[in-house]
Structures are given as C-alpha cells and as structure tokens.
C-alpha cells in the first residue's frame, strides 16, 4: 500500500491533491491513501471561520468547501486528525469521527480505524497542561478562551488510546511526542529552527501524552506536523525489538517538504475505511464516563478490569454476529457526510443493542 503522508494541510487540499497527481504521473505509481497530520481547516462556509483560531490575515476559505459541497471529489481516500487551526465547531460535530466530506475521513479526537488491513490510530489537537484534565466543555460560539482550549488534548481521550492492546501500524499526532528529538539529528534541526533550541535543552518540546502513547503503542510508523519542518527519528523501544520510524512534515508551500510517500506491506485490499472492533469496544466502555464539564477529575482506569470488559464486548459481538464490522460498514459507507452521521453515531448504540441485545 502506498501512503502519502502530509504535514499541516491549512485548507490547501487542491494543491496537495495536485502534488499527489504529479507524483503518480512522474513515478508511474498509484497512491492508495493520504494521511494528514492536522491543521486541516475543514471550513465549509464563512460561519465556520468564527471557530477557527488564526490571525485575521489567515482567515481564508481555502479549498475544503469545494469537496464538502461536491464541486470536487477527493481523488485519493484521505484520513486526517485535527490540529490547533481547525473549524472546531465542525470537528466537534464529528467527535466520534466520520466523513467530513466524501472520501475525506476525520479520525476523531482520538481514534483507531482500519484501512485495508492497516490499523491507523490518531490523537487530535495539541497538548496544554492547563486543560488536560478537563472535560470537553467547549461549545460554539466560542469565546477568546474556548476557541483555544477546544483543541487541547484531554486525558479522557488519551486514556482510551492507552487501552489499545492490538498492534497499531501507524499513529498520527499533530504535535510531536515529547523527547522525540533525542532520537534524531536535533543539532541539524536547530541549525534551521534556532528557536527550538531552548525547548529541546529543557526537554519541553512536544506533547507529553503523545510520548506516553508512543511508549505504550510502539507503532512501526508515527507521523506528526505542527512545527512546520521535516524531521526524522528512529525510536528503538528495546534492544533488537520493536522500533518506531518517526516523521514530521511541513505545511504545503512551494519548496517545503510537506509530502512523503511510504510503501507499507499490506493485503491486496479492498482499501477502504472500516471501523475497528477493539476501538469500538473501548469507546463503548468509556462512553458512560465521557466528561463534558470543567470539573477537574482524575480518571481512574483499572487496566485489567477495562480489558476484561473490552474483551467481553468483542467476544460477545463475535459470538452473536460474526459479520459485525460488515454490518457497521453498511451504515458507515452509505451515510451522507453531513450531520446525519453524527446523529447516526449517537443512535448507533441503540441500534446495536437491539441488534445484538448486548448488556453494558
Ligand atoms: Mn499546528
């Protein structure tokens, strides 16, 4: 499977898809998937710009609206996570993930999906210690504070990802995992980006929860963006054991390193976005403690108990309906990419309960 990885999109879908077409033509290859590591700017209309936290000079419609309205269709299946420059009102509608436009899938605030047999996980937003323990309390219209805090990573979402035990092939985070620069040529990095030096020396460059997830999940590939430069690193988790190839990319501008093609061994397909059973079970398990207020609460997670519930749910699904994922796919892939899918996800537990008569 040939995967194009892109750094920050900043609404330049037209340019990125043109670049992909150019690569396909010149190298005579077919790109199967585009992954975008945040700052996607899924702006559907002028109203959405009220939820986008950027300086006034960057408030532009750019090109996502064409793909949302159907004027253009994404030529390559696209999966993206959120960053710190987003139409946060729209992404919140898709909290559980979904089609932001035909062929363009938002991976959720935190989530795991399958594409073919490749398992892709991601964490949207950026880390800020002040808001880490809060619930998702922000609602549009955002004020000067909530327009920023809405994209700050929450402990709740990280805890869910920490429960993933099945192997992840690729992980996406917008900001870099804390300490990742130790595993690459940071001296060369600060020659170009002098202002990173202090943060690297003080070991504050990057996201603490992303580093925890890297240590836990140990995926073969980890892609990030946010700092608008290319950087590679190799994390050897244990001697002779698993390793993670880290790659951060730039934003889409002429002469910048914003796109990279990775060739990953995979089954022949079909290559399409599918729900992930383990992730659905974790989402189900954690939904009853979904925090929605500003109350600071430390989430106590007993990993073993959680695992027993998650395994129980998966086993139950498998016992009652071998083809659960196909059943879900029926709903998923035929659903129009508007608010209806959010509504669908909200009623999905009820549909499933009726269908499988499961117990919480
Ligand atoms: Mn960013």
UniProtKB/TrEMBL annotation:
Swiss-Prot/TrEMBL keywords: Hydrolase, Iron, Manganese, Membrane, Metal-binding, mRNA processing, Nucleus, Transmembrane, Transmembrane helix, Zinc
Lariat debranching enzyme C-terminal domain span: 235-352
GO function term, MF aspect, one: RNA lariat debranching enzyme activity
CDD domains: MPP_Dbr1_N
Family annotation (Pfam families): DBR1, Metallophos
A GO biological-process term: mRNA splicing, via spliceosome
Domain of life from the UniProt record: Eukaryota
Cell location: Nucleus
Cofactor requirements of the protein: Zn(2+); Fe(2+); Mn(2+)
Record-annotated membrane-spanning stretches: 338-356
Predominant location category: nucleus
One GO term describing the cellular component: nucleus
Family named by the database record: Belongs to the lariat debranching enzyme family.
Protein name as annotated: Lariat debranching enzyme
Protein species of origin: Hibiscus syriacus
């Amino acid at each position: 499977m040939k995967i194009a990885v892109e750094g920050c999109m900043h609404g330049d879908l037209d340019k990125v898809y043109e670049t992909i077409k150019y690569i396909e033509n010149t190298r005579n290859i077919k790109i199967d998937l585009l992954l975008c590591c945040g700052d996607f700017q899924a702006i559907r209309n002028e109203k959405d710009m009220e939820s986008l936290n950027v300086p006034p000079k960057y408030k532009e419609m750019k090109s996502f609206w064409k793909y949302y309205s159907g004027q253009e269709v994404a030529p390559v299946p696209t999966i993206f996570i959120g960053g710190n420059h987003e139409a946060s009102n729209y992404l919140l509608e898709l909290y559980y993930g979904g089609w932001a436009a035909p062929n363009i899938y938002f991976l959720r605030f935190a989530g795991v999906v399958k594409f073919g047999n490749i398992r892709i996980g991601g964490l949207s937003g950026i880390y800020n210690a002040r808001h880490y323990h809060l619930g998702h309390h922000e609602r549009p219209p955002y004020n000067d504070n909530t327009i920023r805090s809405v994209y700050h990573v929450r402990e709740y979402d990280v805890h869910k990802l920490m429960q993933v035990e099945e192997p992840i092939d690729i992980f996406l985070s917008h900001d870099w995992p804390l300490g990742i620069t130790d595993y690459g040529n940071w001296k060369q990095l600060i020659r170009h980006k002098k202002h990173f030096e202090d943060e690297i020396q003080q070991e504050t460059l990057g996201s603490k929860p992303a580093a925890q997830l890297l240590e836990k999940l140990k995926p073969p590939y980890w892609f990030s963006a946010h700092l608008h430069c290319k950087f590679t690193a190799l994390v050897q988790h244990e001697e002779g054991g698993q390793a993670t190839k880290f790659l951060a990319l730039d934003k889409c501008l002429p002469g910048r390193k914003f796109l990279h093609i990775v060739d990953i061994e995979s089954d022949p397909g079909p290559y399409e976005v599918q729900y992930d059973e383990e992730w659905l079970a974790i989402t189900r398990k954690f939904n009853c403690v979904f925090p929605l207020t500003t109350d600071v609460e430390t989430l106590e997670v007993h990993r073993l108990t959680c695992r027993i519930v998650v395994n129980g749910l998966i086993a139950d699904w498998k016992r009652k309906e071998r083809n659960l994922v196909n059943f879900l796919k029926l709903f998923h892939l035929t659903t129009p990419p508007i608010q209806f899918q959010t509504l669908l996800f909200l009623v999905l537990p009820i549909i499933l309960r009726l269908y499988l008569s499961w117990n919480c």
